[in-house]
Amino acid sequence: MPIDIHQFPCLSDNYGFLIRDRAEGAVATIDTPDPDAINAALDEKGWRLTHILNTHWHADHAGGNLALKEKWGCRIIGPAGEAAKIPGIDRRVGEDDVVELGATTATVRDTPGHTSGHIIYHFADDGAAFVGDTIFAMGCGRLFEGTPDQMWTSLSKIAAMPPETKLYCAHEYTQANAAFALSVDPHNEDLRRRAEEVDRLRAAGEPTVPTNVAIELKTNPFLRAEDSGLQAAIDMSGADAVSVFAETRRRKDQF
Ligand code: ZN
Ligand code: FE
């Protein structure tokens, strides 16, 4: 079923997303980074909030849950794996659970790594996935609670989505991610072109989110652990994907 997506910047580098199911008018916010900004966006669109869909427990994702629930009486859906840390949670969901928003549905995928219970919401009929802090444009979430093995499996679920799937990442980290990506994948022409395009967009004050699966497969070093060029650039030719991913993530943490 068709949805409208309204994206807006909030906090220092987060994005807020409102999703409206056109058939029945149900409206969800993906995470609750800033209740005031979310209420202002709802006002601007003339929409009434019916659902909160949380990706993980961090304050810039679930910190506004209770304020919004108090104002709107909305239903809060969040990760079963960290439900105790999701304020006001009404429904706990995990791998392959289906979430209804009016006549629209999203499938939940477990993507542990950034946090142990992180989930993402895939609106397959609309070709959109809300990925929280699992994947960013040319980057991925820091491994606060999970292992490289878990995160590689989580990212592989995103890599396997249809290539045109739009990825709505929770942060505008793209320019810094591009600089790092070039350091581990210096001969990647697609990456060079994209880094230049990102510089142009940011200079013009434009968002670089959403990205899509096809672009990330070509330019995101955290999806390219099996690429021989990237492996050679970090002296890991022939190593297994999880080891290459782990080394790439370690380098990013120190970049
Ligand atoms: Zn986070
Ligand atoms: Fe975050």
Write the layout of secondary structure elements.
Elements: E1 3-10, E2 14-21, E3 27-30, H1 35-45, E4 51-53, H2 59-62, H3 65-72, E5 75-79, E6 91-93, E7 98-101, E8 104-110, E9 119-123, E10 128-132, E11 135-136, E12 139-140, H4 148-159, E13 166-169, H5 174-184, H6 189-203, E14 211-212, H7 213-219, H8 228-233, H9 241-254
Parallel strand pairs: 3-4, 4-5, 5-6, 10-13
Antiparallel strand pairs: 1-2, 2-3, 7-8, 8-9, 9-10, 11-12, 13-14
The structure holds zinc ion and fe (iii) ion (FE).
Residues 56, 58, 61, 114, 133 line the site of zinc ion.
Summarize the structure.
With 255 residues, the protein is α/β, with parallel strands linked by helices.
Structure overview:
The chain is an alpha/beta fold and 255 residues long. It has a single domain, classed as Ribonuclease Z/Hydroxyacylglutathione hydrolase-like (Metallo-beta-lactamase, Chain A, 4-Layer Sandwich), CATH 3.60.15. 35% of the residues lie in helices and 24% in strands. It is built from 9 helices and 14 strands. A 6-stranded mixed β-sheet has the order 1-2-3-4-5-6, covered by helices on one side. A 6-stranded mixed β-sheet has the order 7-8-9-10-13-14. A hairpin with a 2-residue loop joins strand 7 and strand 8. It is globular and about 55 Å long. The N and C termini lie far apart (42 Å). The model has no long low-confidence stretch (mean pLDDT 98). Bound molecules: zinc ion and fe (iii) ion. The site of fe (iii) ion has 6 residues, from helix 2.
